[in-house]
Amino acid sequence: MVRKFLYFIAIMVVLFAAGRIVLGFYPEELTRATFTPSGAFEPQQRLAQNAYAAPAMWLARPRDPGEALIAWKPDGFAEPGAPIDVAVFFVHPTSYLKKTHWNAPLDDADARRIGEIVTRANASVFNRAAEVWAPRYRQATFGAFVSDKPEAGQAHDLAYRDVAQAFDTFLAAQPPGRGIVLAGHSQGSFIIKRLLKEKVAGTPLAQRIVAAYAIGWLVDTARDLPAMGLTACATPEQSGCVISYLSFVDQADTTMMRGAYERFAGKTQAPSTPHYLCSNPLTGGIGGTAAADANRGAIVPDLKMEHATITPKLVGATCAADGTLRIGEGPDMGPFVLPGGNYHVYDYALFWTNLREDFARRAAAWQKQR
Q1: Which residues pair with 326 in a beta bridge?
Q2: How does DSSP classify residue 196?
Q3: What is the CA radius of gyration of the chain?
Q4: For labelling, which of 111, 287, 354, 370 has a CA lying 20 to 30 Å from the CA of 149?
Q5: DSSP strands (E only) in 136-194
Q6: Predicted local confidence at residue 3, as pLDDT
Q7: Distance, CA of 175 to CA of 106 (rounded, Å)
Q8: Which residues of the chain have pLDDT under 70?
Q9: What's the start-to-end Cα distance of the chain, in Å?
């Protein structure tokens, strides 16, 4: 049992250390050599048309065993209020680190286990929703985010194709007119941006979007938002808008992280000064500063990432000039805080209660406008 636990911890440490590399804290040459697959991209057939009718293709789906991941709450947490009649589509972040393949095999046990952990911690923010769906998908391996090879683009396209197919299944299961929330983290948010661009923007479905939580991946207000067809959430009661931020300590250097975003920003020419959206999760607006007193409760997990306690006033939030969110000196969240003051792993956890309230407000605002 001890050996299994230590093996689990080792996997988690590697995952979260890799997250730091994604955001650029190691030289690109070393990163590519360590994580980029050496083999050719393996073209894969599209999933069967009805693939996402199977419960096994979902980490979480209503009335399936994975629903317990979403129902998770911190120890002792109680919240009044009826279920909220909207549906949430959540895309989990990268949980496949191996360089054996450019895309994660669906039967990779490590990728699934880590995917379940991060889905439980992040998507539980939305567990007052009538339904929360979280698909499994042939995610791009970590190395696809640090490579200039054409195979990296092919890996991203394959991952997106799976999620887009899952999204169609999710939509088909919703009653006409029900509000939709799109949410993700890291690779999940990278995909959410593309979903909005290719399947929502300019369609009647856009009117059903309650909010899009593209957390853990940069959103450029000039290049991304117009393509996504939504504006940034400027007020706490606004609906049909986008929330995005990345969490760092005050003194963190985010230069290379922002460079990593530009690698995947597409062929659109960058403005002379990119302007990245920094949503402030403590105010519900854009930019600005909020003291820790406004933090209604972060979740601080145990080593197994199974239990957590609510800790109010843990950190404040200030949007810096570079478009990232700064949280002061940074709290002790355990062994998975990334070097260099990068709290990427805890983007949701640091503001867990505020995000729950943010979701409830925006859903109420959307329902009033129907």
Answers
A1: 248, 318
A2: I
A3: 19
A4: 111
A5: 179-185
A6: 42
A7: 29
A8: 1-32, 256, 260, 265-273
A9: 53
- pTM (predicted TM-score): 0.91
Beta strands in the chain (DSSP E): 58-60, 84-91, 129-135, 179-185, 209-215, 231-232, 241-243, 247-248, 279-280, 285-286, 289-290, 298-301, 308-311, 317-319, 325-326
Q: 56 is in which domain, residue-wise?
A: 2-368
The region that residue 323 occupies, defined by phi over 0 for left and psi between -120 and 50 for alpha, beta otherwise, is left
Query: How far, rounded to the nearest angstrom, does the alpha carbon of residue 111 sit from its chain's CA centroid?
Result: 16
Chain segment 104-118, per-residue pLDDT in tens: 999 999 999 999 999
Burial grade of 216 (CB within 10 A; 0-12, 13-18, 19 or more): buried
The closest of 5, 94, 82 to 345, measured between CA atoms, is 94
Report helix, strand or coil for 103.
strand
CA dist., res. 26 & res. 23, Å (int): 9
Q: What is the pLDDT of residue 20?
A: 47
Q: How many domains does one find in the chain?
A: 1
Helix/strand/coil for 177? coil
With CA atoms as reference, report the closest residue to 102 among 147, 49, 56.
Answer: 147
- Angle subtended by helix axes 187-195 and 150-172, to nearest 10: 70
Query: Any residues with CB less than 8 A from the CB of 177 and at least 6 apart, and which?
Result: 208, 370
